[in-house]
């Protein structure tokens, strides 16, 4: 089992604390079936670019970056985008600590030379270039709420954060609006543009998000004579009651045979 990155330095007053959804990503993407699939897809071409949207504490992207050779079969470049500037700072530290720990624990070159490029403060894919993301990871705000909190790009602050500010920052991590899908729907619309030709997206849904309908919709996206869109569940939390059951859906272009 690959070690989970430490997030002991993270203030959970303003940043989402790693929970079942976070660990579902770690378990799923490091599973033998997913590592084999990813390695077969990414083994050729330039160094893959991994992007996590809304990393929060940074535990997922730190895990994937630190263990890139085991999971992807190659070194990677990675970066993250978060609307919460505090999360951007926390993620950068989490990833660096994870990389340092891996290097200290190994005396061989097997740790590789994967690099974390940046923590970008922004809204979903707006800071990214089209067609350049090879692996996209998104643990969205999926809780149904009356509305989605406004994104205020204020940048990092060294001053004391008020209770109202901390509450707002935390709400960005869970409040998904109508059916918990307002933010996720925006991201899904951007996937065809942001992914590279070999790109793949891993997006988390809860039962209340109606993932079966979402997968059917994606499988019907516009295709070409050479490839079509595919979406399938590759990891579940195992819960069977209510909307709390979680699942990770893999979205990619599949070549026609």
From TrEMBL:
Query: What are the entry keywords?
Result: Methyltransferase, S-adenosyl-L-methionine, Transferase
Q: Name one GO biological process term.
A: methylation
Q: Which GO terms describe its cellular component?
A: eRF1 methyltransferase complex
Q: Looking at the keywords, is Transcription regulation present?
A: no
Instruction: Specify the domain of life of the species encoding this protein.
Output: Eukaryota
MF terms from GO for this chain are: nucleic acid binding; protein methyltransferase activity; S-adenosylmethionine-dependent methyltransferase activity
Among SUPFAM superfamilies, the record links this protein to: S-adenosyl-L-methionine-dependent methyltransferases
Spell out the family assignment given in the record's similarity comment: Belongs to the eukaryotic/archaeal PrmC-related family.
- Name assigned to this protein: Methyltransferase small domain-containing protein
